[in-house]
Amino acid sequence: MPDRQEAALETAQDYRLPATVTPERYDLKLTPDLKAFTFVGEETVAIKVNRKTREILLNALELEIDSVGVERAGRTIAGSAHLLPERERARLEFKEPIEPGDWKLRIGFRGVLNDKLHGFYRSQYKDDAGKTHIVASTQFEATDARRAFPCWDEPALKASYKVRLVIDEHLTALSNAGVEAEHKLGGGKKEVVFKETIKMST
Fold first, then answer.
1. I want to staple 67 with a disulfide (CB 3.0 to 4.6 A). Which of 2, 48, 108, 168 is the partner?
2. Beta strands, E only, the chain
3. Is 43 exposed, middle or buried (0-12, 13-18, 19+ CB in 10 A)?
4. Topology (CATH) of 16-194
5. How far separated are the first and last CA of the chain, in Å rounded?
6. What phi, psi does 73 have (nearest 5°)?
């Protein structure tokens, strides 16, 4: 009987993220390139470390992670990312243990605007004059948010989201949260800042 219980636990761990670290709030900035069909992202996630650990396991798929670190009270611990595509995860490993409590996790990443209709993807439409335009859209249900940004992509792991998009000045950005502010950045770019969401699933 114990062997069966252990096997069931291992199977569950294959599909569910551990409760060692949980997210509270995402501050997410995405910069899509509608010509190259790519995007770069930066996120700062307010996390709660529930048990002392040297690693953080979260969901990521079809992304490249360029930088990782955690911060608290002016102290930063650098980390590195190891992608586990078969599990649709990333393991973030740190040079020293992270003590329990509140931390900020910072991740720099990039990805492709795919044509598969999931995650952060590209599509197109024709205007009244018959001209074709490219758009970048998102489809996150049920587990495709992990294709757009590293996250705890499970329904029970709810958090609030503050999203910013950097786009060409002539483009329009829409979200399920209203626009809070818009800033010109120069070089034909602008940043659209959306209002923070309620606590919700990815």
1. 108
2. 21-33, 38-49, 53-59, 63-72, 75-84, 89-98, 101-112, 119-126, 132-139, 160-168, 179-186, 189-194
3. buried
4. Immunoglobulin-like (2.60.40)
5. 37
6. 50, 45
Residue linked to tokens 């990443």: 109
Token pair listed for 147: 């294709």
Mean pLDDT by 10 residues, the chain (202 residues): 50 77 98 96 98 98 98 96 97 97 98 93 90 91 95 96 96 92 95 97 94
The contacts of residue 9 (CB under 8 Å, 6+ apart) are: none
pTM attached to this predicted model: 0.90
- Residue located via tokens 């010509």: 35
CB-based contacts of 76, cutoff 8 Å, min separation 6: 69, 70
